[in-house]
Amino acid sequence: MIPAPVRRWASVIAFAGLAAGWEYGFTRYADAAGWEPVVAPASVAFLLAAFGWSARGGDAPATVGRAFLIAYAAWLGLACARTAHPSELLEMWHLDPLRERVAVVLLAGIAYALVLTVFVALPASLGARRRPHPSGRDDEFWSFIHDRAGR
Q1: Spatial CA neighbour of 72 closest among 108, 37, 46
Q2: Rounded to whole angstroms, how far apart are CA atoms 90 and 27?
Q3: CB atoms < 10 A from the CB of 131, how many?
Q4: CB–CB of 104/79 below 8 Å?
Q5: What is the per-residue pLDDT across 1-59, written as a single tens digit (0 to 9) for each?
Q6: pTM beyond cutoff 0.90
């Protein structure tokens, strides 16, 4: 049996890998197809909304932290796809000397991940989970309140 914390992080790692791979592949496809440059970065919003929806009803700070990691992984996939390749050999292996640009790329990823987390994943995670059967807790609570207010 897998412990609960490991299961939670396993889903985050799976979503992060999916986000990075999706963003890399979709960016390469969108650039080759000549689509608008904004389409590829926005495409990961659906994946983050799915993560937020799957994490609804949980702890909000933990959900925000996990969604931030997933969005940042998507940013890394986008950055790998959009970096310029100065030679054919480096382009074939998708390598680029980023020594001059690595700090700017990493800092821009923080803003990208924060925007996607706050405006996509967090609202999706705040939806209430549906209960299959009414629990009656609300009725018990309100009857208690009415009993106390009547005294």
Answers
A1: 108
A2: 18
A3: 8
A4: no
A5: 566 666 778 888 998 999 999 999 999 899 889 888 888 888 899 999 998 888 887 78
A6: no
User: Nearest Cα to 90, choosing from 98, 100, 102?
Assistant: 98
Residue 116: helix, strand or coil by DSSP?
Answer: helix
SS3 of the chain: helix, strand, coil, percent, to 5 = 75, 0, 25
Amino acid in the structure at residue 136: G
Which token pair is 133?
């059967």
| Separation between Cα atoms, residue 24 and residue 74, nearest integer Å | 8
- Interatomic CA distance for residues 148 and 40, integer angstroms: 57
Please state the separation of Cα 133 from the chain's center in Å. 31
Q: Which residue has the tokens 């994490």?
A: 55
- Residues for the chain: how many in total? 151
